[in-house]
Amino acid sequence: MIRVENLHRHFGGFRAVDGATLSIEKGTVTGLIGPNGAGKSTLFNVVSGALPPTSGRIVMDGEDITGLPPHALFHKGLLRTFQIAHEFSSMTCRENLMMVPGHQSGETLWNAWFGRGRIAQEEAVLLKKADEVLDFLTISHLKDERAGNLSGGQKKLLELGRTMMVDARIVFLDEVGAGVNRTLLMTIADTILRLNRERGYTFCVIEHDMDFIGRICDPVIVMAQGKKLAEGTIDDIKANGAVIEAYLGAGLRTREASA
């Protein structure tokens, strides 16, 4: 579905992404792991259009999408979330979801004055869909709560809900577990798997929690020094000596050898 070919993103003399080549297959939940500074978030930023590449190519379903801006990728079904949730804090959860779809009639001054009936019809459809999404996420009891009052994990669920308000084809999740308690993290994991299995979502997930990655991701891609180091199942990755040295640390090898 997504193919990254010899991708580079440099900041002066620093090569954050340095010749990365990898693929994300349709229908998978692909994990992307690696040590801090490996280039994972920068790769996400380039693929999602937040940063232009220095060189290289990104292809989505046979179409070259290299350098397209985020709004263009959004309309192609490529969405991305961030380590820190970006909610509209003063708006309710339901209103946050209803804001997502683009090209709403109420966005133009003309329709605001003369197309109120059409706007009301659209809002009724969006309201129904938002409530369905909140039910799916098991947070319907928070529909009228201001998003700024939610916990970190609830905000991450709300971000997943945003992807459900449009025809998302692939979603890039950047440290979805950051700042989330264990119980809600498992709820998020279950939600990702349900979206993958029931609605056909493709995911690529950056996360440092290896239990979380092991529960939902196959395959797992390891980045180090701006490029792909290894790829395989979570068991393959844990047994890979190069990965242990570069990411998990030599101490893990010692502990596993003595186990």
Summarize the structure.
GO terms for molecular function: ATP binding; ATP hydrolysis activity. The chain has 259 residues and is an alpha/beta fold.
Features:
259 residues; 2 domains; 6-stranded mixed beta sheet; 4-stranded antiparallel beta sheet; 10 strands; AAA+_ATPase; ATP binding
Task: Tell me what you see in this structure.
- By secondary structure, this protein is of the alpha/beta class.
- It folds into two domains: 178 residues, Rossmann fold (3-Layer(aba) Sandwich), CATH 3.40.50; 60 residues, no CATH class.
- The C terminus is likely disordered.
- Strands 6-7-8-3-9-10 form a six-stranded mixed β-sheet, with helices on both faces. Strands 2-1-4-5 form a four-stranded antiparallel β-sheet, with helices on one face.
- It contains eleven helices and ten strands.
- 42% of the residues lie in helices and 22% in strands.
- One of its GO terms (molecular function) is ATP hydrolysis activity.
- This is Branched-chain amino acid transport system ATP-binding protein.
- Keywords: ATP-binding, Nucleotide-binding, Transport.
- InterPro entries: AAA+_ATPase (IPR003593), ABC_AA/LPS_Transport (IPR051120), ABC_transporter-like_ATP-bd (IPR003439), ABC_transporter-like_CS (IPR017871), BCA_ABC_TP_C (IPR032823), P-loop_NTPase (IPR027417).
- Pfam families: ABC_tran, BCA_ABC_TP_C.
